[in-house]
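Hi support team,

I've been running sequence recovery on a batch of backbones for a student project. Most finish fine, but this one hangs at about 90% for roughly twenty minutes before it completes. I'm not sure whether the input is malformed or the queue is just slow. I've pasted the structure tokens below so you can try to reproduce it. Let me know if you need the job ID as well.

Thanks,
M.K.
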């Protein structure tokens, strides 16, 4: 009973820290985006120049989403191990579709595309139908790209998870994920596959951190 209580407090402490990490990652995302107008790589460009804000945006943008994906992988492992969630691929798709794809489609179809067309942003200078089709296949989806990427990443990782649990095959798969990260820019940018290739290894690192910490606790 004592050991079970200690374990519960340990899991609570770990998840509290991961949730704080997600908050920090969100704040860094806001910071990176709010200063992006000084980099020249944003939809809008500031008429003023700032060496500090430009480099701050570049620096923060280099890792804020990696932190978020890491946390997502960690929480995914926690849900699988402790919450007994995602017993089947069908269940996973159903849950993640509601949480990720429905908001993605709703905001894109009724807010992002219409606003983009009203503001006459270059990427939306087509008919609504063409813009919508492009959005559905993962093109011209602005800041919503992360939702589709995470949805696809969850599905792919779920199918790879059995291989990851096999010691003999895990190392090979890790090497393949590292290669996928390196060649991600060469992957066709449809359904966010390019970003899935890039972020998969970071999702795995978060997943592995939880699995390893759980095994370490059991040995004590």
């Amino acid at each position: 009973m004592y050991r079970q209580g200690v374990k519960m407090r340990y899991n609570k402490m770990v998840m509290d820290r991961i949730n704080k990490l997600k908050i920090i990652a969100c704040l860094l995302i806001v910071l990176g985006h709010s200063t992006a107008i000084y980099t020249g790589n944003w939809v809008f460009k500031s008429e003023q120049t700032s060496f500090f804000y430009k480099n701050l945006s570049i620096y923060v943008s280099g890792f804020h989403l990696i932190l978020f994906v890491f946390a997502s992988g960690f929480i995914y492992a926690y849900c699988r191990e402790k919450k007994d969630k995602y017993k089947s691929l069908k269940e996973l798709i159903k849950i993640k579709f509601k949480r990720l794809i429905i908001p993605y489609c709703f905001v894109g179809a009724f807010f992002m595309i219409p606003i983009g067309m009203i503001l006459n942003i270059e990427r939306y200078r087509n008919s609504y139908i063409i813009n919508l089709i492009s959005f559905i296949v993962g093109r011209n989806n602005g800041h919503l790209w992360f939702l589709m990427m995470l949805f696809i990443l969850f599905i792919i990782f779920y199918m790879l998870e059995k291989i990851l649990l096999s010691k003999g095959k895990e190392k090979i798969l890790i090497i393949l994920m590292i290669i996928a990260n390196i060649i991600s820019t060469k992957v066709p940018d449809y359904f966010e596959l390019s970003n899935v290739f890039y972020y998969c290894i970071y999702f795995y690192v978060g997943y592995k951190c939880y699995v390893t910490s759980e095994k370490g606790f059991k040995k004590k």
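--
Follow-up from support: It reproduced on our side and the slowdown came from queue contention, not your input. The mean pLDDT is 86. No action needed from you.
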